[in-house]
TrEMBL record:
<dbReference type="Pfam" id="PF08238">
    <property type="entry name" value="Sel1"/>
</dbReference>
<dbReference type="InterPro" id="IPR011990">
    <property type="entry name" value="TPR-like_helical_dom_sf"/>
</dbReference>
<dbReference type="Pfam" id="PF07714">
    <property type="entry name" value="PK_Tyr_Ser-Thr"/>
</dbReference>
<dbReference type="InterPro" id="IPR000719">
    <property type="entry name" value="Prot_kinase_dom"/>
</dbReference>
<dbReference type="InterPro" id="IPR051681">
    <property type="entry name" value="Ser/Thr_Kinases-Pseudokinases"/>
</dbReference>
<dbReference type="InterPro" id="IPR011009">
    <property type="entry name" value="Kinase-like_dom_sf"/>
</dbReference>
<dbReference type="InterPro" id="IPR006597">
    <property type="entry name" value="Sel1-like"/>
</dbReference>
<dbReference type="GO" id="GO:0004674">
    <property type="term" value="F:protein serine/threonine kinase activity"/>
</dbReference>
<protein>
    <recommendedName>
        <fullName>Protein kinase domain-containing protein</fullName>
    </recommendedName>
</protein>
<dbReference type="GO" id="GO:0005524">
    <property type="term" value="F:ATP binding"/>
</dbReference>
<feature type="domain" description="Protein kinase">
    <location>
        <begin position="24"/>
        <end position="302"/>
    </location>
</feature>
<dbReference type="InterPro" id="IPR001245">
    <property type="entry name" value="Ser-Thr/Tyr_kinase_cat_dom"/>
</dbReference>
Amino acid sequence: MSTSNRIDTEIKNKKISVFNYDEFSNMTKAGEGAFGIVYKADWKTGGIPVALKKCSNFSTKELNTLIKVSFHSNINRFLGITKESSNKYVLVLQYANQGNLREYLKQNQNFKSLQWKDKIQMALDITCGLKFLHSRNIIHRDLHAKNILVHNRTLMIADFGLSKQLTAESSSSSTVYGMPAYIDPQCFKRIKYKRNKKSDIYSLGVLLWEITSGYSPFLTIPHCIVVCKIANGFREEPTINTPLKNMSKSREIFFHLINNPMIIQHYEVMIGNFYSKGFGVEKNKNQAFEWYMKASKAHNLYGYYQVGYCYYYGYGVEENNEYAFKFLQSAIDCNIGLHYLAACYKFGYGIEANSSKSFELYKQSAEEGFVPSQYEVATCCRSGTGTKENKTEALKWYKLYQESGGEYNVSSHIKELSKEITLPMKKRKITSTFTARKREETGKKDLN
């Protein structure tokens, strides 16, 4: 079956609106991309301007994606389809009256008028649209500032030529198309890399940087060099346009999005983070807690963790160890939740203290890469808390903690353990006996 016939079948089965080509007039070129040319046109019947996308390689794939997602307010709306005189199909789409995000930010007056609350809203617009795509198991794969449209200051995701429906059998690996600055670094490192939702979230992080700075990423660097830099971990820095109080926070959230793709599934956590960090809005612990609670009610694991954390420390809510334990237990699949759940067992917060259970959870979290848990495992192995004393294991975990950039300076621990382990057995026993006697004498002095 030809592409044309397949599209005819899709139109019939899905009851897509079909318009006569002569319903559109006053066509002017509005933009051009890798997958087609877009024209602005007046729609006589509808009485509104629309965008006509003439696709160079039209397929049912993009059509199906548009049908599934176009009713969301942060997705460019699909109105129907038409055929031009050459018998080629043309998509009829919502017209964005302020162009794409790149053009919008380039207009100096537009960017100057944006307050931080406006930038946050723009970030949330894209986040909500992407959240919706991912909830339908669709990855966009080509998110960048020219594929984000602005209509009455609301942002919409557009251009689904490269998008893909994720299934257990599907492979999203392919030739790397798009704008290099927005592409997941793994695509440049591994030829057969299977792109996923995290790839879109990397692009979202770059878009957030562009919104906060007003500049295109890597503006003065040739594309071929950009690819090498991104593959080697190079990232844009906050610019002078970013207020000092927001510089580190914009960077922090950029990397937070990249490293924690789960939060996109429920944007409530992201808003909670904005309030918690004071990013673009006034810092407000109570508001942060309320948004985290909304995320937990939507059964978001990261939301469970944040609520548990708030109850644990009394952050934006009255401290409550029982509630902390309850929410952290729900967040057990979240690596960071394991760490604080282990702390509950360690100190007996909300449950009877259990050093063995605490060690088990710390170790599970540490093995999954959570750095603070690595320190706890090392300490337990050294002291024999919740597990058998094992100085070799303790040394291993202290070294790993140090290599991972842990907060505490553990050089002295590593030095001491290295000496203890390398001491001859006999000397080690003498040292151990001497240390025990010294501790005993010190204890007696303290009692006196």
